[in-house]
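Weekly puzzle thread! Below is a chain. First person to post its structure in token form gets bragging rights.
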Amino acid sequence: MPIAQNSPKVINYKHINKNAITSQLGIGAIDMNMQKTKKKKSPTKSIREFCITCMGGRANEGHIKLVRECVSENCELFEFRLGNNPYHTQNLSAEQREDRSERLRARLIHD
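Winning reply:
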């Protein structure tokens, strides 16, 4: 079957030397590492980062205040903008609350 002129050519990349390609293209070997996966964030942290970006990014002085005072209530991420899930609640007994508060106090004293 003939290959059409506009169809993409299939190339087997397993046998290509990446260093040869990078030297031909003038790309440093460091640039090839950009394709590695980054550390995954939790969904709430990702939403927080989105909100910071929406308000002008971290370079914008006062971005935390801008995110906190966001008025875009029609945004689907509005309730998650502060970096926590408002629908995730823990039903703790009084004993569990006391235990956690003691551990927190002990940790704050040692830090």
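Puzzle host: Confirmed. Bonus trivia for everyone else. The chain has a mean pLDDT of 75.
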